[in-house]
Write a structure and sequence with these properties.
By secondary structure, the chain is mainly β. The protein is built from no helices and 15 strands. The strands form 3 sheets. The chain has an 8-stranded mixed beta sheet, with no helix packed on it. A 4-stranded antiparallel beta sheet has the order 3-2-5-6, with no helix packed on it.
């Protein structure tokens, strides 16, 4: 008997397709809350796992920004959402003082810089939510001269709100300026 050579046969069993996939989710700025079908899934940047064959509702939310929403599935390459700031209009008010001082200030709230030109100054395009602010400039008083003014802090910006300018002498020729909400 002549031995026969055995030829291995190719396995015709298909390779199983993974039942899940991973999806990278990021936002600019980062730190946005991730919700998939309404369930919290962390903050950006993050990688989430999805089930193949299923479509999901994704929402990214960050204080002071509009909610970003889109549909995702395993065919989505990645998500890199540019968050759009929610903005509003506020009034910056300086009601004056006993010394008839005038304020020549430049203010920045969030990413919006402006220079109030009246005691009740309306300004639009201010980012809503918790925002940092800076104030620089001069305060002039007829009876006591000028001071270099500066200040910084944070305020909760609400559309339509009024924010009062308050100041105090802190050193010879130096004044501290604060904003407070009504």
């Amino acid at each position: 008997v002549t031995p026969q050579r055995v030829i291995p046969q190719e396995d015709s069993t298909p390779t199983p397709v993974p039942q899940t996939c991973s999806l990278d989710i990021d936002s600019n700025p980062s730190g946005a809350g991730i919700k998939v079908n309404g369930a919290s899934r962390g903050e950006t940047p993050d990688r989430i796992t999805l089930t193949r064959g299923t479509s999901y509702g994704l929402s990214l939310s960050l204080d002071g920004y509009k909610v970003h929403q889109e549909r995702i599935d395993c065919g989505t390459d990645s998500v890199n959402a540019k968050m759009e700031a929610q903005v509003g209009t506020i009034t910056v008010a300086y009601t004056g003082d006993l010394f008839a001082c005038s304020l020549d200030l430049t203010m920045k709230i969030g990413n919006k810089a402006f220079r109030p030109t009246s005691n009740q100054y309306g300004v639009g395009g201010i980012p809503l939510g918790k925002q940092s602010y800076t104030v620089t400039g001069q305060i002039g008083c007829p009876s006591s001269g000028m001071c270099v003014a500066s200040g910084s802090g944070s305020i909760e910006v609400r559309d339509g709100a009024t924010y009062s300018v308050q100041w105090a002498n802190v050193a010879y020729g130096g004044c501290r300026v604060l904003l407070s909400g009504n």
